[in-house]
Amino acid sequence: MTRKMNVLVVGSGAREHALAWALSKSAAVETVHAAPGNPGMRDVAAIHPVKHPDLRSLLPLITRENIRMAVIGPEAPLAAGLADELRAAGILVFGPGPEGALLEGSKSHAKKFMDRHGIPTARWDLCTTAEEARRALDSRHAPFVVKADGLAAGKGVVVTQSREEALDAARGMLEGGRHGEAGKKIVIEDGLAGNELTILALTDGTTYRLLSPSQDHKRAFDGDKGPNTGGMGAYSPVPWVGGALLERICRRIISPTVEGLKKDGIPYCGVIYAGLMIDSDGEPRVIEYNVRFGDPEAQVVLPVLEGDFAELILACCEGRLSEITWKSPSRWAVDVVMASGGYPGQFEKGKKIEGLEKASELEDFVIFHGGTELSDDGCLVTSGGRVVSAVGIGNSLPDALKKAYEGVSLISFDGMHFRRDIGRKALL
What we know:
Strand order of the largest sheet: 3-2-1-4-5
Structural class: alpha+beta
CATH topology of the largest domain: D-amino Acid Aminotransferase, Chain A, domain 1
Shape: globular
CATH class of the largest domain: Alpha Beta
Largest sheet: 5 strands, parallel
Radius of gyration: 21 Å
Helix content: 25-40%
Oligomer: single chain
CATH superfamily of the largest domain: ATP-grasp fold, B domain
Strand content: 25-35%
Number of strands: 22
Mean pLDDT: 96
Number of helices: 14
CATH architecture of the largest domain: 2-Layer Sandwich
């Protein structure tokens, strides 16, 4: 790339803060713009607090700021077709169109895609009534897995040892309106045993490149207890993932996914997020697809990326990812998510956040804002369930863990909670 460009990040969470942070470090980027953004992104991006980041609100911004490329963070605008709308307006966009986004937007669509293209996943049933759900559960043993078919902000999955709890969850979605439209159809599938792993692949629709493997922590409390959340922390890379396992994942999961999209006639420029379970024989199976960077995975994968992130994204948008190579990471990153009291259930907002300025002075430590806003008197306060991601970076996993929790110790707000065992399994 010879001339610097202005780039737009669409979204407002910690993932989008990490994207803006990584793009801002590129020698090829003039200015990063974020819509709607959040207060924590002000050091790395120009913030445009649009109410709804759609084509109508973004086009004037894109024209006014001479934006050449857009990176769409969240799943909802991708499912709604924003990427293709912006592409039709002449903007380079990193993110799939609505057909590609169905890999995340519909669990049953993704399952049919995997079955059609021979991609290993759990046995599954699509249910639209409580009676169908009952029969599907009766054919299985614990753990029972119940998933809302549509987008449910990371909260549409119930995993339980109790058949009755699973049936209650299914009824809550199908008959009780839990998760709204997303829960009018559900997928019930076999529970998979093993170690969870997240693989993020950047693709231009023909070629793909893997980012550093990462491991998310979904449960709310230490020891993987409590309800599922959007993610309470992550680390990268994953020490037990070697070259042989990555080769197997590429051969059995990522390559068939990219080829399957091509065979189905679906153009795809963006991230393929493969949430995997690795069994005791080292065989990978897909738990779920996402069609964007994960949150909190982005917050650990991007800080250890060796290379120019904007160059990678632009190569995907221009269909020339095959020209790009990069090295494996030489450092480690750990993200500890600091959450509001009560999350992932009901929680209060407007709690003043203390210690961010002092924590930001630490070396090899970065804060990505997820649910923050400015109060009327200019103070940073909580505005969401997952408030900030505290990310430590080090030359080893223990070093990165130490840096992360050192930063956490300096930050506080009323009712906050966080997990104290992020990455512990990897150390053991």
